[in-house]
Every structure is written in structure tokens, then in C-alpha cells.
Amino acid sequence: GDSVTQMEGPVTLSEEAFLTINCTYTATGYPSLFWYVQYPGEGLQLLLKATKADDKGSNKGFEATYRKETTSFHLEKGSVQVSDSAVYFCALSGQAGAQKLVFGQGTRLTINP
Amino acid sequence: DAGVIQSPRHEVTEMGQEVTLRCKPISGHNSLFWYRQTMMRGLELLIYFNNNVPIDDSGMPEDRFSAKMPNASFSTLKIQPSEPRDSAVYFCASRTNPGQGRTDTQYFGPGTRLTVL
């Protein structure tokens, strides 16, 4: 079945550091790919998404590129802030008509001032 | 738009009691999802509905769990009887159906933190 594997956390960085959180997936066909973020005490919020190969999703300085050849969707940010501290989830949605989101295990990110 | 609304936000109950969690999806959304989040198992899909009809309940852990969606603006997740291992954060999410020319993004509510003593 479909699955998502994320870089294990927790990840701790200093403010203004470069961030990469790795995500790889296994799926048949052409899934849509998502990054969700969960701030403490809140529900998940969509951060960005990409629906086809080579698409780049971006939001709030975060970026991720849908790489079909490596089945990856790594999350990057050039300069992180303390306010980026959260748990980040990579997810996929299967082919058209498939409605389930399959989530990775989440990566906890802490940014120190 | 108020977003997905869940109630209560926190629930503490004793083992054996019935627990009912409630969800109001975003108006106009016709798919609704119930998830459970724990440290050990991460985020698990329990059940989802399309147009108020349950489509896949394979994630519902046991017969003690049941979910209903009597209309497009309301859903419940019931646990009867509750057990300590049911302690978790339960999320509701909604989205539009695919194939309507819209995004397939799921929008999550703030969750209900359930503690069963």
C-alpha cells in the first residue's frame, strides 16, 4: 500500500539556519503530495502541496519539489525562525478518486534563538 | 469561514463511560474524516464519510467505536465503553470531493484531547 517515510526527529536548529526535512514515499501512479504543520495545541494546517511531478509547492518561505524519479518531497527553508518550531507531517493522497491522506510519522522541529 | 469546529476541546472521563466527540465541517465540504493521534502510533485515519455516507471505517479500532453523520453539518464519534488506551487527540477534517475542479486539501479542526482514567 501507499506509505510515507519522514526523517526522524527531533530536529533542533539555531535561528537563521537552513532547514531540510526529508520525505520519501511509496505509491502507485501519481499521488498528490503535502506538507502539514502542527503548532503546539493546534490541529494540522496545510503548509504547501504539489500535485504533479516537478511541481514546487511554497509558502511562508518553505519549499518542496515533487521528485518522481527519487519519490521524494523534501521540505526546505533557507532561514528558520523561532516561530517555525512545530511538528511537520509529510502526506500523500492517492490517484484521482482516492480520498485518504497517508501521513508520515511527523518530525518535531525546535528552533533556538 | 469558521473552519472545522470540534467539541469539546478537552474531555476527561473514567474507564467504562461513554464519550461523544462532535464535529462541524466547513460549510460546503462534503467529505469528513476522523483521525486519532497518539505518540506511539502517530496520526491514524479512523473513518471517513462522503456526502454523509461512511465510505471506509477500516481504521476504527474496535466495536466500541462508532461514528455517524446525520447531516452535512454534523458528525459524532462515540466510544462506549471507553478505556485508558483510548486516550489520544481526536481530529476531525473536511474537504470538498475530488473531481469538482477544486483542491483536495483536507482542513483540520483543533482536536479533542481525550483522557480516560
Q: Describe it for me?
A:
- The complex is a heterodimer of chains A (113) and B (117).
- Chain A is globular.
- In chain A, the strands form three sheets. In chain A, strands 2, 5, 6, 10, 11 and 12 form a six-stranded mixed sheet that branches. A four-stranded antiparallel sheet of chain A has the order 3-9-8-7, with no helix packed on it.
- By secondary structure, chain A is an all-beta fold.
- In chain A, β5 (32-38) and β6 form a beta hairpin.
- Chain A is 0% helix and 50% strand.
- The model of chain B has no long low-confidence stretch (mean pLDDT 91).
- In chain B, strands 2, 4, 5, 6, 9, 10 and 11 form a seven-stranded mixed sheet that branches. In chain B, strands 1-3-8-7 form a four-stranded antiparallel sheet, with no helix packed on it.
- In chain B, a hairpin with a 2-residue loop joins β7 and β8 (74-79).
- Chain B has strands at 5-7, 10-13, 19-24, 31-38, 42-50, 53-56, 65-71, 74-79, 88-95, 107-108, 112-116.
- Chain B has no helices and eleven strands.
- Helices cover 0% and strands 53% of the residues of chain B.
- With 117 residues, chain B is mainly beta.
- Chain A binds chain B through residues 32, 34, 36, 41-46, 49, 89, 93, 96-97, 99-101, 103, 105-106, and chain B through 4, 31, 33, 42-43, 45, 48, 50, 55-56, 91, 93, 95, 97-99, 103-111.
